[in-house]
Amino acid sequence: MIKFKGIAAASGISIGPAYKMGKEEFTVPKQEIGDADIPLQIQIFEEALIKTRREIIDLQKRIATEMGQEEAQIFDAHLLVLEDRMLIEEVISRLKKEHLSVAFIFSEVLKKYIEVFSKIEDEYLKERIADINDVGKRILRNLLGKERKGFEDLKEKVVVVAHDLSPSDTAAMHKQNVCAFVTDIGGKTSHTAIMAKSLEIPAVVGVEGVTARIKTGDLLIVDGVTGTVIIEPDEETLRIYQEEETKLKGIAEKFLESKDLPAVTLDGHSIEVSANIELPEEVASVKLHGAQGIGLYRTEFLYMNRKDPPTEEEQYQAYKYVAEELAPHPVVIRTLDLGGDKFLSQFEIPTEIEPFLGWRAIRFCLARQDVFKVQLRAVLRASVHGKLKLMYPMISGLEELKQANLILNEVKEELRSKNIPFNSDIEVGAMIEVPSAAMTVDLLSREAHFFSIGTNDLIQYSLAVDRANEKVAYLYEPTHPAVLRMIKNIIDSAHANGIKVAMCGEMAGEPILIPILLGLGLDEFSMPPLLIPETKYIIRSLKVSQVKDIALQALGLATGKEVEDYAQAKLKEIIG
Ligand code: PEP
Ligand code: MG
Prior knowledge:
Glucose Oxidase, domain 1; Enzyme I, Chain A, domain 2; TIM Barrel; eight-stranded mixed β-sheet; eight-stranded parallel β-barrel; 47% helix; globular; binds phosphoenolpyruvate; binds magnesium ion
């Protein structure tokens, strides 16, 4: 039994066999072949080598234009491995001798090479192992005729283990046999972690070195509450976690009992509690957990795991469906927020050194109005089917907000001229997730009907902490005094201008922070559906007069840790 500690990214406990992916692990069947098959197997091998060579040269060209000649030279070593006569001849001679499929023989030869190189006490040769491994996996993938592994073929519930997973990888787990995942890298508010919460699967990220210790098939316990991963647990540990899993399910069911009760404080103040979604399919979960609407629909996930962007009609159908399902409750459609840690191959966004500070979100949409207008048209057309609102991500100042609204007006005019119906009074909001926006809420009030605080980004930008990097995760503090002061300023300034404020970052779903946020005057909490029942339960146990004082006390504390301890103690005192 080995225990690892990482970052708890999505709550819950799952127990299941490991399934390694990403840095591809192939299971190559040991398949016998006859004499007559040998020429065909040699041909398959040659074709795989040619295909791999082409892939590497293409990759090298792309890296040369995007990053420079020097970086591209790394692949010269890969091409050399591919031309290694000794390796090729060994595969062919063993193929003839052993009568086993070329994929199996090649995987055996590859293993032997890696073993031999690992034993040599020479730093330069040791470094070549990575090259051999990389090229070897590429050849193997081509020999087996495989694309990068997906989740469709999973026959039983597994725990996915990967060095890293992209948000689109995680989105692809939807409705597949994945009961949890574990990664070497990543942070609590990376989109991969956020997606796990939506899919309601426990996840632990940033567990440095964990993938090297796990083999496919190892029994794993993933505790997404404490961020613990246990490999091959002993019987006693297994029993304890099985009990804990049942207990957690019991607590969740208890909270579910109050899901349809209104989110009203003990002294009669109504608070909106809404849901964040990434996919239209999550609507069922939104309803199941008693949300009063959707406070954030991350539409960029519609664009993922596909070759071409979704057409206007396809988007219209998705937005119409969500609007109709939730009516009369509101649905906030956030316009395309790609870039940062969400990449889409369709738009060929160049690799950037600082993607979170780069060509992202509204910046991309203002530059690619062709893409932006298709989405705006689809949202406007769907706006007659329910209560849709629009929201722009990553607004950094009034000018950007004005530009976005101008484009929206152009699209409205176009629809009007074609007699296509839409709600001309559709409300438009801005996300407050860049410190410059947080400081100019009064100015942004001129062009917005509502605001929603995106704390995931606001925290990373104001504390200068990459939200997806486990190395600096300890500095990512929602309770940092700077964050609390900024939130207070946003809410006070918006209220002074008669505008309501929601919060749709992960901070809104942190139980211990609810009293403070409520005390600061937050009007709406938006979060992954699963967290809604508990949030309602907490709100129904509070009084506004009491939380105002809690917020005041919290604002007087000096460190994130002090605020966190205080918040924890207060919640315990109130709800036990
Ligand atoms: C945020 O930044 O808090 C937010 C809600 O948007 P996203 O997590 O998609 O960047
Ligand atoms: Mg954001």
